[in-house]
Write a structure and sequence with these properties.
285 residues, 0% strand
C-alpha cells in the first residue's frame, strides 16, 4: 500500500503567503501602486493638457502655483507630461514582461512534461537568443522595423522570452522531481491536472519574482531607447523621452530633466524592493 504522505500532493509547498514585508518593501509597494494608478488614470487627472498648455515665457521654468514641477523646453507643464507618460513607462514594461512570462511559461512547462529532443532543441534555441546583447539587438530591430508601439512590444517580448523560459523550466523541473508528482502519475492524473494543480502553484513565487526582474530591465531598456529617439515617438513621450528632450536644462538644474529621472528611479526601486521581499519570503518557506 502506498504511503498516504506520498499519495497526496505536497500542499504545504503552496500554502498562502501573508505579506510580512520590511517597511522599505511596503513603501516600495505603495510607490509602485501609485505609479500604476497614474498610468491608468493619469490622462484624466493631469492639471493641464500637455498639448495645449504652453507657457512660452517660462521655458524650463521653476515650480509655480500653476506648474508644480516647472515647465519643459517648450513651456509645457512637466507634471502633466510625467503623468501622461506613465502609461508608457509603466504600461509597456508590464505588458511585455507579462507576454514574455506567458510564452516562457507555456514553453517551459511544456518541455518539462515532454523532455527528450524537443527540450534539447528548444533550450539550445533559447540560449542562443539569450546570448544576444539585448540593447544592441533592440536598437537594430527597432531601427530596421520602425519605432511604433507594436514593434516595441514584439521586439522586447521576443528578447525576454528566453529568460522567462529558462527560469520557468528550471523551477518546473525541480518540482517535477518531487514525490507528489510521481504520486499524481500513479493515480492516473492527466497532464493538465499536473500542470495546473501540482506544478504551477508551486512555482508561483518564482514567476512573480522573475516578472518583477523583467519589469525593471524592460523599463530601463525602453527608457534608454526613448532617450536615443527610438522608443515612444512624439507627440507622445515616456519618461526616457522627457529626459532626452530636456537635456538642455541640465546645466540650469531644471526640474524638467530631474523630475522624470527621479520618477523612473522611484519606479524601478519600488519594484526592486518588492522583488527582494518576495525572494526573502520564498527562501523562508
Amino acid at each position: 500500500m502506498m504511503d498516504s504522505s506520498v499519495s497526496r500532493p505536497a500542499r504545504g509547498l503552496r500554502r498562502p503567503v501573508l505579506p510580512n514585508w520590511p517597511i522599505l518593501s511596503v513603501m516600495g509597494a505603495i510607490v509602485f501602486l501609485f505609479w500604476a494608478f497614474i498610468a491608468i488614470f493619469g490622462d484624466w487627472l493631469t492639471p493641464h493638457d500637455p498639448g495645449e498648455f504652453i507657457d512660452s515665457w517660462n521655458v524650463l521654468g521653476p515650480p509655480t502655483a500653476q506648474t508644480w514641477l516647472g515647465t519643459d523646453y517648450l513651456g509645457r507643464d512637466v507634471l502633466s507630461r510625467i503623468m501622461t507618460g506613465a502609461k508608457y513607462t509603466v504600461g509597456l514594461p508590464f505588458l511585455t514582461a507579462g507576454l514574455a512570462l506567458f510564452f516562457g511559461l507555456v514553453l517551459g512547462v511544456g518541455v518539462t512534461l515532454v523532455r527528450g529532443p524537443l527540450d534539447t532543441a528548444l533550450s539550445w534555441l533559447m540560449d542562443t537568443v539569450n546570448s544576444l546583447p539585448s540593447t544592441i539587438f533592440a536598437l537594430v530591430a527597432v531601427a530596421g522595423f520602425g519605432t511604433s508601439i507594436p514593434v516595441l512590444v514584439i521586439v522586447i517580448t521576443a528578447l525576454y522570452i528566453p529568460s522567462a523560459y529558462r527560469n520557468v523550466r528550471a523551477a518546473a523541473m525541480n518540482v517535477s522531481r518531487l514525490e507528489f508528482i510521481d504520486a499524481a502519475h500513479v493515480r492516473g492524473e492527466g497532464p493538465l491536472y499536473i500542470i495546473f494543480r501540482e506544478i504551477l502553484p508551486n512555482i508561483l513565487p518564482n514567476l512573480v519574482t522573475h516578472f518583477g526582474i523583467m519589469f525593471i530591465y524592460i523599463a530601463l531598456l525602453l527608457s534608454g531607447l526613448s532617450f536615443l529617439g527610438l522608443g515612444v515617438q512624439p507627440p507622445e513621450a515616456d519618461w526616457g523621452a522627457l529626459i532626452a528632450e530636456n537635456m538642455m536644462g541640465l546645466s540650469y538644474g531644471a526640474l524638467a530633466i530631474f523630475a522624470p529621472a527621479l520618477a523612473l528611479l522611484s519606479l524601478t526601486m519600488s519594484m526592486t524592493l518588492m522583488v527582494d521581499a518576495i525572494s526573502a519570503q520564498k527562501k523562508e518557506r
